[in-house]
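> example.struct
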């Protein structure tokens, strides 16, 4: 048990570091692409050296390949600079090469990923008796890596890039499909529940998106594919949206009261949907039991 927790914590820290890399590289890629297209639009013939440098950079910014660099001075990082959390603490939050501060986002994301991994194992609502539960558990861990990247990205730039959403959905869907084929006691109802969950998480946002003049972002619709697949029942999907609304309201309330934030100002909704998915996945059965007790 303790060994499992230590392994999960280490794995979480390393994958948290991967999340930071995915977020940074995805952001850089989108900046390069938008700069290239704006250069093309103005039909400027002087494609500056800066832009061609960025273009070659873009090829090096593949998410899975390429060495990690300092976001500020682009110096390649040595293995000793890449130890999650500890490198940041040891270097007192500064780059070894240019001495510019490194965002607190790096250690915070690494610690969050480790916390998600460890708490998911401790709080997992079913016991790990069969291979089916382990499959669902590891599918969730793999999916949570993509979800954390999306939460960070949406939090910072109010966007859920499809480049991250679709691979995350693929991971979640593959795990769910294998589970249904190999382990679900009632395959048809498992399939219908999965479809129903996505109808709630994606379908609802699709309606809001089209009826409300872009009150929410289109990314919330595609994110629904992931959260619906993870929750896999319409009831949990409804519960998740309920919790996400509460979390979002609690977050927006202080700004609304102090009038620093208007009703029209944008807040990222993705992080709340993702946090609510985590809550419902781990506490869903407990919440259901409690609710049924209230009724009887
Ligand atoms: Zn640097």
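> example.seq
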């Amino acid at each position: 048990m303790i060994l499992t927790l230590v392994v999960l914590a280490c794995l979480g820290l390393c994958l948290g570091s991967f999340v930071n890399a995915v977020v940074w590289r995805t952001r850089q890629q989108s900046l390069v692409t938008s700069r290239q297209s704006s250069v093309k639009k103005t039909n400027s013939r002087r494609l500056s050296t800066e832009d061609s440098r960025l273009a070659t950079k873009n090829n090096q910014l593949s998410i899975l390949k390429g060495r990690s660099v300092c976001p500020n001075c682009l110096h390649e990082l040595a293995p000793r600079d890449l130890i999650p959390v500890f490198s940041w603490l040891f270097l007192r939050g500064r780059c070894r090469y240019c001495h510019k501060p490194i965002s607190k986002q790096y250690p915070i994301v690494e610690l969050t990923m480790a916390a998600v991994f460890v708490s998911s194992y401790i709080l997992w609502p079913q016991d790990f008796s069969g291979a089916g539960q382990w499959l669902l558990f590891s599918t969730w861990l793999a999916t949570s890596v993509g979800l954390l990247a999306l939460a960070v990205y949406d939090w910072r730039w109010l966007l859920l890039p499809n480049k991250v959403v679709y691979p995350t959905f693929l991971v979640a869907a593959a795990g769910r499909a294998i589970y249904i084929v190999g382990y679900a006691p009632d395959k048809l109802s498992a399939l219908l529940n999965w479809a129903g969950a996505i109808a709630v998480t994606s379908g609802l946002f699709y309606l809001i998106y089209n009826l409300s003049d872009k009150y929410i972002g289109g990314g919330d619709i595609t994110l629904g594919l992931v959260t619906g697949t993870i929750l896999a029942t319409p009831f949990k999907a409804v519960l998740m949206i309920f919790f996400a609304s509460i979390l979002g309201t609690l977050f927006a309330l202080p700004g609304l009261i102090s009038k620093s934030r208007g009703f029209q100002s944008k807040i990222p909704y993705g992080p709340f949907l993702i946090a609510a998915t985590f809550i419902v996945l781990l506490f869903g059965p407990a919440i259901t039991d409690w609710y049924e007790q209230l009724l009887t």
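> remarks
The mean pLDDT is 87.
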